[in-house]
Design brief:
The protein is of the alpha/beta class. Helix content is about 30%, strand content about 20%. A seven-stranded mixed beta sheet has the order 3-2-1-4-5-7-6, sandwiched between helices. It is globular. It binds S-adenosylmethionine. The site of S-adenosylmethionine (SAM) has 17 residues, from helix 2.
Length: about 160
């Protein structure tokens, strides 16, 4: 497979997982979290497929095109450890869907980031909420979900938070 084919497959898998997760949480109230704004591609997709839902974005340092940057009330800029810690009370048990896309391509860094997120997301998730992640997370309380048809194993990871 060419690198172009592989890149296209990765993006297609990401879009399929996002669409599937949004469908799964259609009846779960609460905001969506986008962890990792990057160039804003997946944030833009999320806001286009669920225009009526509130989306909060977390990013170390914003460099996306201005069209793809949320307003200040929906953006938490800084290291994910600090920003997720800062919102624990405000969003406790209320997040319907979290998309974790913080991968750097460096396994040692990504393992640490996954541990950071795994420690902080559980208290934020609403019952029945869904987490989709580019890295495997350590969420023993959550149900690991199968990926949508056609998405290669371990390309993405999906979890559902238990009902209360
Ligand atoms: C793969 S990119 C996100 C791509 C984005 N979802 C898109 O579709 O354009 C990862 C982003 O996560 C951010 N990031 C990585 N580690 C972070 C951390 N520890 N705290 C906050 N942001 C982080 C990076 O700055 C980068 O913008």
């Amino acid at each position: 497979m060419s690198r172009l084919d592989s890149f296209l497959r990765r993006l297609q898998a990401q879009r399929d997982c996002l669409n599937w997760a949004v469908d799964m949480v259609a009846k779960v109230p609460g905001p969506l979290f986008e962890l990792g704004l990057g160039n804003g591609r997946t944030y833009d997709h999320l806001r286009s497929i669920c225009p009526d839902r509130e989306i909060f974005v977390f990013e170390r340092s914003v460099s996306a095109h201005p069209d793809c940057v949320p307003d200040a009330a929906h953006l938490f800029e800084g290291l994910i450890d600090d920003t997720l810690d800062a919102v624990q009370d405000r969003f406790a048990a209320s997040v319907s869907m979290a998309h974790v896309d913080l991968g750097s391509g460096h396994p040692d860094i990504d393992t640490k980031t996954a541990a950071t997120v795994s420690a902080r997301l559980p208290a934020l998730m609403a019952p029945g909420g869904v987490i989709i992640s580019d890295q495997e997370l350590n969420l023993p309380e959550a149900e690991a979900l199968p990926l949508p048809a056609g998405v290669q194993e371990r390309r993405y990871f999906m979890y559902r938070w238990p009902q209360a």
